[in-house]
C-alpha cells in the first residue's frame, strides 16, 4: 500500500506566525553590526577624518557668522571711489625722440650775486674725441673766469667835488684855491690796487670777493696844501661805515652786551694810553672766563688736530688781551669822535708828507655839518670811509654796528697829517675842538652859515645824568 505524503494545510488552517519575529531579528542584527562598528572604528584612520570634518563644519559656521557681522554696506562705495581716482590720473606725454647725433650748444645767462656783482655766464660745448681720451685732458672740462672791472678815476675839480657834496665848497671857501695846486694822492691809486689784488686772490670764490659796494667806496684822495699858510691836508671823499670798538675801565666801567657781542668787535683801538685807575676793564671778567673755558677744553683728550690748533691760538690771543686790559685804555666808539684810517697809510711816512697817522686831527663834513675828530684806529687796507658809532649817529640817528652812517659817497674826510699830540691820553673834547678849529683856519676858515660842531662830553654826561648802571670812576689828573 503506497505511503501518503503529508499535504500542506490550507492557509485558512495554518497556525499564525509570532508577531514581529522577523523585524526583531533584523533589529538585533543591525544593533550587533553597529556595536561591532563602534568598537572597531576608533582603531581605524576613518575616525580621524570624521573628527576633522566635524571640527571644520563647526568652525566654518562660526567664521560665517563673524563675516556676516563685519561686512557693511559702505565697502562697495569705497571701491567705487578708488576706481574714479584712477580714471582721473593724467597720462604722461610721450618722451621726446632720441637725438640722432650731437648738437653743439651755446648758452648765456645773466645774474646778480648777493654781493651786488653782475655775473655773465656762458656755456659752450663742442664735439670732442672719445671719453676715455677726453678724461685725460684737463682742458676738456674747464671753467674760465674773466672779471671785468672799470677802476674809477679820482675827481679833482671843485665841480666834481660839489656834485658829490654840494656843501663842501661853501663850508671850505679856501678849497678852490688849493685844488689848483693839488694832486691825486698815490694813496688813491694804492687803494684801488689793493682792491684789485683782493679780488684776484678770491677770484675762484666769487661770493667771497670784495662786494660792489666796498669796491666803489672812495671817490677821490687829494693832497692839499694852502698857498699862504702851507698847512697840509688830505681830502678823502667816501662813505661812512661804523666801528663799535674800544673799551676803557677808567672812564666806563660797564658796557652793553649789544656792543661787545656784535660782529667784528675789538676791545681795543690803535689810539691807546696807559691805564690810570685800578678800576678793572668792563670786559676783563668775561675774557678771563673765556680763557678758563678754552684751557679746560684744550686739556681734554681726543680733540681733533684742527680744534687743538684753534684753541691754542685762542688761548694765546685771550692771554695778550687780558694783559692789555690790565695795563692800558682805549677810545670808546660809543662816546668818542674818531675816524678809522685804512691800513694802506701805515708806515708810509717816508713816501708821502701827506700820510695820516694815528692821533692826527681831522674833520668830517657831511651836508651842513662839520664834525671834529681824531684818527683813532686802523681798518682794512682795501677799504675806505669808517668812523666811530658816535659820529655815525650824528650823521644818521639809525646808525648801528650793522647800519652805515652813510652809504653814498657823500662824506668828506679832511685830515691834517702830522698834527698828533704825544703821548696819547684820555680824550679832551674841548682841546680836540680847538685844534680842529685852528687847522681849519689855516686852510682858509669856515664859510658863512657853517660852524664847527661842539661835541658833548658823553662820559661826563653819563656820570651826571645816568649814574648806575654806568658806575664810572673819576679819571686821575
How would you characterize this protein structure?
The chain is α+β, with helices and mostly antiparallel strands and about 475 residues long. Among the domains are: about 160-245 and about 335-465, Barwin-like endoglucanases, CATH 2.40.40; about 270-330. It is about 35% helix and about 15% strand. The protein contains 15 helices and 12 strands. It has helices at about 20-40, 45-70, 75-90, 130-135, 160-165, 170, 175-180, 185-200, 210-215, 255-260, 285-300, 305-325, 390-395, 430-440, 460-465, and strands spanning about 105-110, 120-125, 185, 220-225, 230-245, 270-275, 330, 340, 360-365, 370-380, 385-390, 405-415. Strands 3, 4, 5, 8, 9, 10, 11 and 12 form an 8-stranded mixed beta sheet that branches. Strand 1 (about 105-110) and strand 2 (about 120-125) form a beta hairpin. The protein is elongated, with a radius of gyration of 51 Å. The termini are far apart.
